[in-house]
Amino acid sequence: MSSDLASRASQSKDISRNKKKLDGKGQFWLVFRYIALSILFVIAALPIYIMVINSVKGITGVNQSAAFVPPTSLNFGAWGPTWEILREPMFRTLVFVLQSSIISAIIGSINGYVFAKWRFKGSTIIFTTFLFGMFIPYQAIMIPLTQFNRWAGIGGTIYVLVFAHVIYGIPICTLIFRNYYQAIPNELIEAARVDGAGMVRIFRTIILPLSIPGFVVVLIWQFTSAWNDFLFAIFLTGGSPKLSVATTALNFITGSGNQVYYGNNMTASLIVSIPTLLVYMFLGRYFLRGLLSGSLKG
């Protein structure tokens, strides 16, 4: 056993000797990468830092000249009133976001399955049409969408947002699932067809159990997109307080007269951003795994 340890030690020494040392150019680019990453980290973390430190300065303890200065003492006086305003809109947002995310994910998985494994004449043209929907700006469909909502009888309800995000979520969900399903070997589908399984049974018994990474990606994407949306929320609801969601509720936290209560604004912004922060903190690695799992064919 001692001889094995000695041989391993000698091998590690040989490996360390054989490691190529970085020359001046290599060291420069290494330092440059670390500096660039540090700058990007500061840029990304700075808004969160400002929101956090100013949310614990109280309602009137925040001013522009000391926005970057940490508080001398913690004051959570702005959290209670702000939460009372945001509680109902955030619950309403969670309800419509979950509905739109789940519905668009299910429709996208079915579309992706058909385009990836059951191609038919003209499927490429139809798939291209689906992708074209991702590039249509929101502003271009506002009036037709409002007219359709009135015709469908869902105007003045939260379902106008559910419908809008489902429609805009279908193209990207279809693309993600189609690329993901293309990585599944066709031999599985052929074997199931030989055994007499049809299109629906193959999808239910073979494809769906393998789709968990794809669903994670799509649900996270749709959740973030719908939660952070402001244009649909303010336009389709007409700015009504009864239909306000998380992003539009921030408009009602502005103070009165010429006085702006930055403590309330910072606290509200932090509270509204917490759900998406938690999603990426705890599910971010699954999001990356799901994206990469369909990038290569096995």
Automatic annotation (TrEMBL):
Q: What is its main location?
A: membrane
Q: Name one GO cellular component term.
A: membrane
InterPro entries assigned to the protein according to its UniProt record, in alphabetical order: MetI-like, MetI-like_sf
Transmembrane stretches in the record are: 28-50, 90-113, 125-146, 158-181, 202-224, 230-254, 266-288
Give the record's keywords alphabetically.
Membrane, Transmembrane, Transmembrane helix
Query: How does the record say this protein sits in the membrane?
Result: Multi-pass membrane protein
Has keyword Membrane?
yes
Which SUPFAM superfamilies does this one have?
A: MetI-like
Localization in the cell? Membrane
A GO BP annotation? transmembrane transport
Q: Which residues form the ABC transmembrane type-1 domain?
A: 90-283
Mind telling me what this protein is named?
A: Unannotated protein
Q: Look up and give the organism this protein is from.
A: freshwater metagenome
Q: What is the lineage of its organism?
A: unclassified sequences, metagenomes, ecological metagenomes
